Amino acid sequence: MKLWGALAVIYAAVVVVIAITKPEKIWSMKKIKFFIKIMGEKGTEVFFYVWAVIFLVLGIWLFTR
């Protein structure tokens, strides 16, 4: 379980980096553009941060099991 926990924490960190830096290649994907269209730019960023927090909590929980 420790491996899955570590991977979840790393994934959460990657999601935060993507939300902060907004790399053009990722930010121009159809799925992300759809999110921006529905929720706006700030809403999409908030979604990314919430998603990262969920995976961070999951990773910590798995890591401590």
From TrEMBL:
Keywords: Membrane, Transmembrane, Transmembrane helix. The chain crosses the membrane at residues 46-64. This is Immunity protein 17. It comes from Acidaminobacter hydrogenoformans DSM 2784.
